[in-house]
Amino acid sequence: MSLTIYYDGDCPFCSSYVRYQRLARIDEINLVNLRALPADDFRHLQERFRLDQGMLVEFSGRWYTGADAMHYLALLSGGSGSLSKALAWVFRYRLLAIILYPILRLFRNLTLLALNRKGLDTAEQKASLLLFSVCFGLFAYLHFLAYAFDFRLPLHVTAYLVPLAGAGLLLRPRSPQLLLLLFMFMVWDGWLMMPVFSNHTIIKNFFLLAVVLAGFYGALRAYSWNSIFDAVAPVGRALLLVMYVFGVFHKINTDFLNPSVSCAVTLWHAMPLLPQWLDTTWFHYLAIYGTLVIETLIFIFLLIPRFRHWGIVFGIAFHSLLAFSGYALYTAFSMLSLTLHMLFLSEHAAQRIVSSPLSKSVADLLASVKGKLLVVSFLLALFLYGHVGMFPVVSLVWCAFVVPLMWLIIKYGHDREDRRGLSIFVSRQWGLNIVSLLFFFNCVTPYLGLKTAQSINMFANLRLEGGVSNHLVLSAPPGPFNYLDDLVSIESRSNDPYFNYIRQEGLSLVWYDFLNRLEKSPNTRVDFLRRGQVYSGQSAATLAHEIESELHPRWFRKWFHFYPVDLTLPKPCARDR
């Protein structure tokens, strides 16, 4: 009796296992390295089996794959040596084999990745994945600049690893190792930095959640990079679509439509070299209603296959224009938006872009020392202008990347055969669609009386605290939860800088947020007004009962947080409220 074992010869674990296998009652054992098979034989096996799922065993005309193959070999095993006996004993039980084999396969995949060896899936990297990698790498770099030079937050070590991996991905966009490292650094740093009151941060974190879930499942199942990307891309599209929905819906309030306080006007005022003749009432209304109309049209165009190409173009153009406002370093948000818009391109359109003469010229240039120096100079210019706070100039430098890309999308990005409907927003890994639904719920939370921060309502002039709503559609006070009803004002100077800022600006805090900040700063003492009563010399110790009974666990509070409350009427535009 003869038995044939097909294995991955580039995997040291697989090679060692089959080499030292001792099988009883088998006259002849044939060991076949899949990578050494003739092309026709390999293609024949690949059509029948997913070869990256695990080894194959053929015996008497029957085929066994993955966990079943390991289980069958264990039943035949009569090997010597402690490790061989241990593996034979474990995999002799089919249930254990089914549970443990995906973990072994995960280590196999990580080993191949670390050794820079490809899997057995011979498919080339998708053009859409290549474009995404380039854009996401630049976003990661700009994300760091926003945190370092605009938000000016204390940074962890991981924050400095993010731009390094992002820059590396710009230079080597086809490297799966760099893309994986970038994801790992961003997930790690994202968790350490939470919560941060930033629209692009919450979108980025939800997208990374989808990447983690799809990546872990895909690694266990030995999916290719293309397959994992195909599973995550619908979530990225859904996040962008939800962003447009609430980017418009939150702004349907009395104060955003009021040109004297509207954030649309405030952001336009921060545009460089704005002509004086445009600073008029008619232009202010144009900025307000133009914002609502443009974002609505982009949303509609992205939904309809016939107009999707123009939805991508207008979306990128709109957010590129927004990036020039000196009100904040919007380039990071605009770059993330651009990256998510790229997910709407069909694979055929992405292939045309990648195969275009301009793209090939750029690829050839990047392969040279001169090209690498140009990329480094580009990144250095972004860094220096961000460091000195010249945010519009950062956007101008960024245009060296955006303008050629926009031209390529306009010329090659339209796919007349693209008939993808609403299914492009639904991942085939059904569990990932929960991420899209959670993001939608995250944006709804202010109207439920829950958290206000990171709900895509920044720069919307939205006011829902203190039992008041300025929204024209949902004009009733938010509910059924009452977190936003209970407000606190700081009555005197404190030894906490944040509480002093709240007092100096004439702001209030949601009671829950006040307790949360006090719990994290146990040495702080503060006087505050709540429900008409002044409380003096309060601290985490004096409010220990309230902190214990009302605050959720800290991991929950990483996303459950609130903006400071501005009770001024009409509500003015501000970055932090």
Tag the structure with descriptive keywords:
23 helices, globular, alpha+beta, Glutaredoxin, four-stranded mixed beta sheet, 577 residues, 56% helix, 3 domains
How are the SSEs ordered, and which strands pair?
Blueprint: E1 2-7, H1 12-19, E2 28-33, H2 39-48, E3 56-59, E4 62-65, H3 66-76, H4 82-91, H5 94-114, H6 127-151, H7 157-171, H8 176-193, H9 199-220, H10 225-249, H11 263-269, H12 281-303, H13 308-322, H14 331-342, H15 347-355, H16 357-366, H17 369-387, H18 391-412, H19 433-444, E5 487-490, H20 497-504, E6 509-510, H21 511-519, E7 526-530, E8 533-538, H22 544-550, H23 554-557
Parallel strand pairs: 1-2
Antiparallel strand pairs: 1-3, 3-4, 5-6, 5-7, 7-8
What does this protein look like?
- The chain has three domains: 2-114, Glutaredoxin; 127-435, no CATH class; 486-577, no CATH class.
- It is an alpha+beta fold and 577 residues long.
- Helices cover 56% and strands 6% of the residues.
- It has helices at 12-19, 39-48, 66-76, 82-91, 94-114, 127-151, 157-171, 176-193, 199-220, 225-249, 263-269, 281-303, 308-322, 331-342, 347-355, 357-366, 369-387, 391-412, 433-444, 497-504, 511-519, 544-550, 554-557; strands spanning 2-7, 28-33, 56-59, 62-65, 487-490, 509-510, 526-530, 533-538.
- α1 (12-19) links the parallel β1 and β2 (28-33).
- The strands form two sheets. Strands 2-1-3-4 form a four-stranded mixed β-sheet, covered by helices on one side. The chain has a four-stranded antiparallel β-sheet with strand order 6-5-7-8.
- It is globular.
- It has 23 helices and eight strands.
